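Q: Hi! First time doing this. I have a protein sequence and I read that you can turn it into a structure. Is that right? Here it is:
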Amino acid sequence: MPISQEDKDEIRELIATEMRKAAQEAVDAILNAPAQLVRYPSAEEMQAREERNKLVREVGDAVVKAFEAIEQEAQARVVEKTDPARADRIRKMVLTF
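A: Yes, that's right. Below is the predicted 3D structure, encoded as structure tokens:
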């Protein structure tokens, strides 16, 4: 059974949404990873952990924003068939990285 272009676009949108969710979950998992069991971490260890978390947040935010851009384009493709003007508005929404 052949799949129509509309079905393909909707599948693309679903996949993009799930990819974005997976990226966000991966970032959250890294940030919430259990720390080493140290009763009282030193100031250097705390600073290193904060620096690592800051880097993970920055990279993670960039990755999630990239997936959001993919999801935005997929949504525009689905809407384009019924409302081209709305699809253009979706595409013009500015995503900041």
